[in-house]
Amino acid sequence: MKLLFSCLAALAAAASPPPPEPADRVFVNGRVWTADAEHPWAQALAVRGPLLAAVGTEAEVRLLVGPRTEVLDLAGRLVTPGFNDAHMHLLVLDEADLDGAASVAEIQSRLREYARAHPERPWVTGRGWGFGAFGGEAPTAAHLDAAVSDRPVYVRDRDGHSAIANRRALALAGVTRETPKPEDGEVVRGADGGPTGLLKESAAGLVGRHVPPPTEEEQYRALKLRLDQAASYGLTSIQNASTIALPVFERVMAEGGLKVRVYASLPLKADLPAEELARYRGLRETHRGPLLKFGSVKGFLDGVIDASTAAVLEPYTRGGTGHLNWTDDELRRTVAFYDREGFQVLLHACGDRAIRQGLDAYASAAQANHTHGRRHRIEHVEVADPADLPRFRALGVIASTQAFFASPDQTTLENYAPLLGPVRASRSNAFKLFDDAGAVQAFGSDWPVFPMRALHGMYAAVTRRTAAGDPPGGWYPENRISVEAALRHFTRDAAFASFDEAVKGTLTAGRLADFVVLSEDVTSGPPERLLSARVLLTVMDGRDTHREPDAFPARTSAR
Ligand SMILES: [Zn+2]
Hints:
By secondary structure, the chain is an alpha/beta fold. β15, α8 (246-254) and β16 form a beta-alpha-beta unit.
């Protein structure tokens, strides 16, 4: 018996590995939600270099504390994987932000402030105003001139369908009484026949094209600003649904300042010339992540519901069935081409007719090329026909939805839903339907169209209420999803959507150290916590990309 014990002890000693290399930092005493279905919760995690060295119990993680390891007390706070925004457009220039301005006076004061802060810009540009701010009056150049008249001013509305120009901008662009009516647009005219300053649809371009393109320096500064914002909202990865200004991103990356990982798409074009294909392949080869990665192409199948340009199977309540940008044949041929080349295809499709066309093209490409696992995606996928829901899982197509779209704001209730009618409205942006159909659903924001703050998007998906709490029961509340489902779509599922599930998306030892520490446990208690919770710390690649001063009040150093 004694012999057996000593034999076992010897065996154990022989089998026990050398002491593990100490971690750089360990985070203890937390509530760690890992997004890993096998081990959803842990107490602590350890970071070594850019990777997670351990995720587990306090005791397991403390094994990695060495003499130089920093120990941080989470004080029971929630840790989750860093958020991954699967559909957004990061590089938005630093223009006057008119979003949410409630009155003309507020628009004017924001423009004045922006003009004062940016004396170097020859034009004052902005975006995000809404017609509601003008209190029933039509916006005019005079509204802008009252704020800034010594420089041309050009501001676009939130949806990008209208713009206002001041007198100087109209003069510089040569828009006068004589300007003919543009196709698909309108120069709104006053009693004297002259332009009032309001420009609708394509008419906006008459002035917009005179705005000088941003310099590389302006783009650089804007990117740095957006990266700071993204990190402050807990984003550690973004998937850019439009072409990126590559030199600017590479410059920031070379400086070590790329605070989020970027998956960039290239334009999906029919009949891509050979030299362009070579460039696409080259970018995919030279940029393979984990910081900057190429591999997808993005195209548009239709427009948007609000403008009745999304392609629908049954007419809108006010008539029309929208518009398809591609014929079935042309799309099938083009998708098959990229599928054969191994590119992931992202198709913008909002209406059920366009969604079906996209799914048909994916099915046909897989059949023609004998390919599988390409993880092609439908972007927005707002109003899918129920018959098409099972096809997402069957074809392995990712539903790339935008959490904030479930927020029943004024436009949704007064324009969007009435256009669709109650039956289609009840299943629009119904994230539950994709979950129930077993589809992989990746959440994004569609910033700058909607806010970048992922937690607020999750609140919309979980409550289907506005931030003000309306309607109290939620808008079509049967489509609400749980907080954990929303978190999963913004982490693990979004990582899958860019083929990165082996390196990120869950908090697992050996994967990238991308995570956030929140001020409140959003997984329990009222969903309003998703609105009030602050991101105290964002870690990407093992480094702090955002940290609030009071993130760790009770901080200890070693042991
Ligand atoms: Zn978009």
